[in-house]
Every structure is written in C-alpha cells, then in structure tokens.
Design a protein that fits this description.
The complex is a heterodimer. By secondary structure, chain A is mainly beta. Helices cover 0% and strands 53% of the residues of chain A. Chain A contains no helices and 11 strands. In chain A, strands 2, 4, 5, 6, 9, 10 and 11 form a 7-stranded mixed sheet that branches. In chain A, strand 7 and strand 8 form a beta hairpin. The termini of chain A are far apart. In chain B, strand 7 and strand 8 form a beta hairpin. Chain B is mainly beta. Chain B contains no helices and 11 strands. The chains are: A mainly beta, B mainly beta. At the A-B interface, strand 5 and strand 10 of A face strand 4 and strand 5 of B.
Chain lengths: 116, 111
C-alpha cells in the first residue's frame, strides 16, 4: 500500500527551539511538496521539489524555514527558531511528473506542530 | 494572481439529501482541476478533470468541468454521514507541478 509517510505525527515544542519534520515520498514519485494548513489560511504551499531540485520556495519564510531533499526517499522541513505563529499542520505530498498523472498529489497524514 | 474560490464555505444537510459543491477558478495556463476529500487527516484524491463536459463518476460522487465558464461542480447523491468532510478543489497549471487550492467546503451530514 503505497503512501507518503511523515514523522513525527505530533510535535510540541517551546518557542526558539529547532523543529525538523521528515517525509518519505511514495517510491517512484519525483515531485515533493510541503504545505502548511491553518484554519485561517487553509492549505498554503511552502516549497516543492522535482527530482530533488528545489523549484519554488517562495511560500516559505526564508529567515527561519528551510527545506531539503538529501536523497530521493527523504525530504525535510526545518524551522529554526520556531515561533508560536508556526503552529499548524504541515503536510507533505508527492506526485509523478508525467502527462497522465501530472497534477495529482498524494498527501501524508501530516505533522501537527504546536509551538508554546 | 491565480485564484480558486469554492462555495458554499459550509453546508449542513440531512442524510439522503443530494448536494452540489461549486468551484470557480481564475488561473493562467490551466492544466487540470482536482477534487480532494479531507476528513480528520490528509486530503485524499477524488477526481482529476482536464476536459470540459466529461463527467467523472465514482459511486455516489460525480464531477464535471466547464472550461469556458471556468468552474466545476462536485455532486454527491444519497449522502451518508461518512461523507462529512472538507472538500477541497485545486487547479494545476501548465509548466508547473504545483496546485492552487480553494479554501474548501465543510460538509456536514446529519443522520
């Protein structure tokens, strides 16, 4: 059963601490997306990669957020230092860049982050 | 700026009713329109539409796209309490893999 795996599922931390969220995309998928979801803003795209190369990170606060793909099976999103306004659910999604499947993204279960 | 607008934002109906959810969009270089269902966790993929007038159907759910009027509808017939969820509409653009999401319609089915 192919699925996107995110860890941790829940994270509670104190303001100023570093937070690292991890994502394992579906095997064979070549695009990876990071989203943030809040009640007020809905789903916001933070960054995305194709073939491990960052294509767009314009949605991320650059001073504190960073996203990387060290290899094809792992994507990371880091927040340093974290702030209470970063509290949200962070989703990772993956997809296959092809004419037939091009736009479909499959979502992980999310990381619920609370910054106190 | 690319924009996707869903209506209504919230809908409460009784089990057995039929509902229609709306999605309108303004994007440059439209590629596809997608519907997702989000219960407590991750959005799950329902349909992808690329051509006008061709209905996609899965059980009690169906969807159609009008590329001339720039909108799509999602119909759910004989609703059940398990259909309660947030339904998200998203549009994909040519030349980029990213999706532009609407704010969602929160559907509540009462027994």
């Amino acid at each position: 059963d192919a699925r996107v795996t995110q860890t941790p599922r829940h994270k509670v931390t104190e303001m100023g601490q570093e937070v690292t969220m991890r994502c394992q995309p579906i095997l064979g998928h070549n695009t990876v997306f990071w989203y943030r979801q809040t009640m007020m803003q809905g789903l916001e795209l933070l960054a995305y990669f194709r073939n491990r190369a960052p294509l767009d990170d314009s949605g991320m606060p650059k001073d504190r957020f960073s996203a990387e793909m060290p290899d094809a099976t792992l994507a990371t999103l880091k927040i340093q230092p974290s702030e209470p306004r970063d509290s949200a659910v962070y989703f990772c999604a993956s997809g296959l860049s092809s004419p037939r499947q091009g736009s479909i993204q499959y979502f992980g279960a999310g990381t619920r982050l609370s910054v106190l | 700026e690319d924009k996707v607008v869903q209506s209504p934002l919230s809908l409460v109906v009784h089990e057995g009713d039929t509902v229609t959810l709306n999605c309108s969009y303004e994007v440059t270089n439209f590629r596809s329109l997608l519907w997702y269902k989000q219960e407590k966790k991750a959005p799950t993929f329902l349909f992808m539409l690329t051509s006008s007038g061709i209905e996609k159907k899965s059980g009690r759910l169906s969807s159609i796209l009008d590329k001339k009027e720039l909108f799509s509808i999602l119909n759910i017939t004989a609703t059940q309490t398990g259909d309660s969820a947030v339904y998200l509409c998203a549009v994909g653009v040519q030349g980029a893999q990213k999706l532009v999401f609407g704010q969602g319609t929160r559907l509540t089915i009462n027994p």
